[in-house]
């Protein structure tokens, strides 16, 4: 190894990355993979050793050949003359008269060291067979390919993620105390109990034989899993952490099984990499067997370099030929064994049905009859695990049993969710209340009711929730969210909620999930309903009981209603905000809106409205109106909004409006106006007579011109014309000195006026997608504008002076 480092070679340890995998992956490596890994290391050493010799020693040594006479039968005298004529005379022997002159004996070639080096290189490149030159490199490359193929399924993103997840779950299942308890409870009885069970299989199930015998003898094979019912003394055997881990494992196994059984990418990857190794083995054997004889010790070299060296024919010695020849035979032996092992692997892959796995033997041994068989990649990994140790599959099977899962849930639910752990999940929700979200639990932990500071409880995807009377301990509870939950409630708990609950949110897939007790919450102020309701919802008897919600102020229905329910009209006298988010179902018969005299906010979203409902114009207290995602084309009725003196927010976005009527000027109280995602082509100058507007969104239309009257909007702070066809901006726009956000991207603008420097409060500017060639340096006067708030192409940003760029980059 030190030799490698001294010559700046790569250490062998650096090659580990080609075959290295996590230590836990060894459970998915059967004996043949382990064996081929060792063979790969041996072949790698051959390649590295050969490459090292190539670097450390001279590759070839060449000497010039003497010129032979043309006739082979010439006399000895002619040979001597020819030699004398072509070969310099041997140096004179030293004499006593000349003792200093000492010369080496041999044939003198008159070649210096550089010429010999040149001859060696030329002959190495021209005369030596390519196999003899590149043998160690070929060994190295082939071995690395073998190593990559053997471990590719551990590295490929589509398969490695599944393997890592599986190994992680497998290790936890193997070590879980719940696995040991489940197997010992079911199959760990003593011999006497087993004998009694066998004898009583043919007798009546009512036979009694002691406390333990009665349990065993009265059970059939299918009822044995009921032994998972553990009394309080046994419950303490699993601590909170162990119970929590086992609970999470059941969920992980369930999700992992659903995910992995969908495909067979692991099986396909393993088969392909094995086939590739077999093909490569055949290729290596074929060409190596044919070319190994090309590694020769002596090589004749004929190169036309006589004008440079005086010689044309050379005899060369390949210094490593003997060693390379032995190494090649050794390499062929290793490759042959490697290939035979791969052929056995292919036989194993195709002889057995590896895409199906049966737990029949586990079911018979443990008595847990509901362990399902698995398929595809899940089955393949279990087959691979069995090659390592079948015990893994047996212990893993416990976590595929629904019976085992249910018993664990009953045993550990409260131990899993301690008050300290629940407090860690507390967060502040949109209503600024301290909320505890609980998602996909097996039930409602009793420890929830020990968190007395709790203000909001959110239960999501929890079946069979039972709210006990202990909820009365939560004196600060004001909000309850039930998302896809079936809830039952204790009578004492209902009395508590009637007095204290202010906000209720119910998300449901079925009408039956609507809790019938919610209609009696007399102090409820906000109700949010999300789910599919029938079109004839107003005739639903249960919803008519909303009239009992005398304190209700906010009602939100996200569903498919075709008309406003009568139950909603019954609470209209005190309703302040109503939101109806439909799925595209047309909302008709809106005259009932007139009765909601105290309504301040109204949202009618995706209700397929073609005109602004006339009933809206009777809502004199209305402050905000949102008609998003409807089918509005004409808004001539907008003139009637002048009677709504308190209207400050009007959102007509995501419609098909083609123009803005000039009556818009009469809405002088407007502060926020949104016409984005429409088909408006012309902006009337009368629009800007609404001089209180602070927020104006005209993005995603077909506007080509901005009237100069926009400068009248001295209160304007947000202005967007993104994705229009505007070619120029009026200078009057820069009179709106309170402007903080300006979005003019994706237009046809070619020049940005230097007057933009007048917008001292500008903190967000979007100019991307235009035809600008340069940005005005006056942008530096916008001190509040930083690089993060400037949306522009990088090349265009570079046109700014360096000091301006540095200023914007400075936080």
Radius of gyration in whole Å, from Cα? 43 Å
Q: Terminal Cα separation, in Å?
A: 52 Å
Q: State the major sheet.
A: 17 strands, mixed
Q: Care to count the β-strands?
A: 24
Please report the number of helical segments: 24
The helix/strand class is: alpha/beta
The fraction of residues in strands falls at 5-15%
Helix content: 25-40%
Assembly type of the shown chains?
A: single chain
What does this entry show, briefly?
The chain is 36% helix and 12% strand.
Can you describe this structure?
It catalyses: chloride(in) = chloride(out); taurine(out) = taurine(in); iodide(out) = iodide(in); 2',3'-cGAMP(out) = 2',3'-cGAMP(in). Residues 185-217 are annotated as: Disordered. It comes from Bos taurus. With 811 residues, this protein is an alpha/beta fold. It has 24 helices and 24 strands. The strands form 4 sheets. The chain has a 17-stranded mixed sheet. α5 (130-155) packs parallel to α14 (321-351) and α8 packs across α9.
């Amino acid at each position: 190894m030190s030799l490698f480092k001294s010559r700046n070679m790569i250490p062998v340890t650096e090659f580990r990355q080609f075959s290295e995998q996590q230590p836990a992956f060894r459970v998915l490596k059967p004996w043949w993979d382990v064996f081929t890994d060792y063979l790969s290391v041996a072949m790698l050493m051959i390649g590295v050793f050969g490459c090292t010799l190539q670097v450390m020693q001279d590759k070839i040594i060449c000497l010039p050949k003497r010129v032979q006479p043309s006739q082979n039968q010439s006399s000895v005298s002619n040979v001597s003359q020819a030699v004398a004529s072509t070969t310099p005379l041997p140096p004179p022997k030293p004499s006593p008269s000349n003792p200093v002159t000492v010369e080496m004996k041999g044939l003198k070639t008159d070649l210096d060291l550089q010429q010999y080096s040149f001859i060696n290189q030329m002959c190495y490149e021209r005369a030596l067979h390519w196999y003899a030159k590149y043998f160690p490199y070929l060994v190295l490359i082939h071995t690395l390919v073998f190593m990559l193929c053997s471990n590719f399924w551990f590295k490929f993103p589509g398969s490695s993620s599944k393997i890592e997840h599986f190994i992680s779950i497998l290790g936890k299942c193997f070590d879980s105390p719940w696995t040991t308890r489940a197997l010992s409870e079911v199959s760990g009885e003593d011999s006497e109990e087993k004998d009694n069970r066998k004898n009583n299989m043919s007798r009546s199930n009512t036979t009694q034989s002691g406390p333990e015998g009665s349990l065993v003898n009265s059970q059939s094979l299918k009822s044995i899993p009921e032994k998972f019912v553990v009394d309080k003394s046994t419950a303490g055997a699993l601590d909170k952490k162990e119970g929590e881990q086992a609970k999470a494992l059941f969920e992980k196994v369930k999700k992992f099984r659903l995910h992995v059984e969908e495909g067979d990418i692991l099986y396909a990857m393993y088969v392909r990499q094995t086939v590739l190794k077999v093909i490569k083995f055949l290729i290596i054997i074929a060409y190596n067997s044919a070319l190994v004889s090309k590694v020769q010790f002596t090589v004749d070299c004929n190169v036309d370099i006589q004008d440079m060296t005086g010689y044309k024919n050379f005899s060369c010695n390949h210094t490593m030929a003997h060693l390379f020849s032995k190494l090649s035979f050794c390499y062929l032996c290793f490759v042959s064994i490697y290939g035979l092992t791969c052929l056995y692997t292919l036989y194993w892959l195709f002889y057995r049905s590896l895409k199906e796995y049966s737990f029949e033997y586990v079911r018979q041994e443990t008595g847990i009859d509901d362990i399902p068989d698995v398929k595809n990649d899940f089955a393949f990994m279990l087959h691979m695990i069995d090659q390592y140790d079948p015990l893994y599959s047996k212990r893993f099977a416990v976590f595929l049993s629904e019976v085992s899962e249910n018993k664990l849930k009953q045993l550990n639910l409260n131990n899993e969710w301690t008050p300290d752990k629940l407090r860690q999940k507390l967060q502040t929700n949109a209503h600024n209340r301290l909320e505890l979200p609980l998602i996909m639990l097996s039930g409602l932990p009793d420890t929830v009711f020990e968190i007395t500071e709790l203000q909001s409880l959110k239960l999501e995807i929890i079946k069979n929730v039972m709210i006990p009377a202990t909820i009365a301990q939560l004196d600060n509870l004001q909000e309850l969210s039930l998302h896809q939950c079936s809830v039952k409630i204790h009578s004492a708990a209902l009395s508590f909620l009637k007095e204290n609950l202010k906000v209720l949110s119910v998300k449901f897939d079925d009408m039956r999930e609507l809790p019938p007790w919610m209609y009696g919450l007399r102090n409820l102020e906000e109700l949010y309903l999300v789910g599919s309701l029938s079109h004839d919802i107003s005739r639903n008897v249960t919803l008519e009981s909303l009239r009992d919600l005398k304190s209700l102020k906010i009602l939100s229905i996200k569903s498919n209603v075709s008309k406003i329910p009568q139950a909603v009209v019954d609470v209209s006298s005190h309703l302040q905000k109503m939101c109806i988010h439909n799925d595209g179902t047309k909302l008709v018969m809106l005259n009932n809106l007139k009765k909601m005299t105290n309504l301040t906010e109204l949202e009618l979203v995706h209700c397929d409205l073609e005109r602004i409902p006339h009933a809206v114009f009777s809502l004199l207290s209305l402050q905000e109106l949102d008609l998003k995602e409807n089918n509005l084309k004409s808004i001539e009725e907008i003139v009637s909004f002048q009677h709504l003196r308190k209207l400050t927010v009007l959102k007509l976005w995501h419609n098909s409006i083609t123009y803005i009527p000039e009556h818009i000027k009469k809405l002088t109280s407007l502060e926020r106006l949104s016409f984005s995602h429409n088909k408006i082509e012309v902006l009337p100058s009368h629009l800007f007579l609404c001089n209180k507007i602070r927020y104006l969104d005209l993005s995603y239309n077909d506007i080509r011109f901005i009237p100069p009257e926009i400068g009248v909007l001295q209160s304007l702070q947000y202005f967007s014309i993104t994705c229009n066809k505007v070619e120029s901006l009026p200078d009057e726009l820069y009179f709106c000195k309170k402007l903080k956000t300006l979005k003019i991207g994706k237009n046809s603008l070619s020049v940005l006026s230097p007057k933009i420097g007048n917008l001292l409060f500008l903190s967000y500017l979007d100019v991307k997608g235009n035809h600008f060639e340069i940005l005005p340096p006056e942008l530096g006067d916008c001190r509040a504008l930083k690089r993060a708030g400037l949306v522009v192409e990088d090349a265009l940003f570079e046109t700014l002076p360096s000091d301006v760029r540095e200023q914007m980059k400075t936080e």
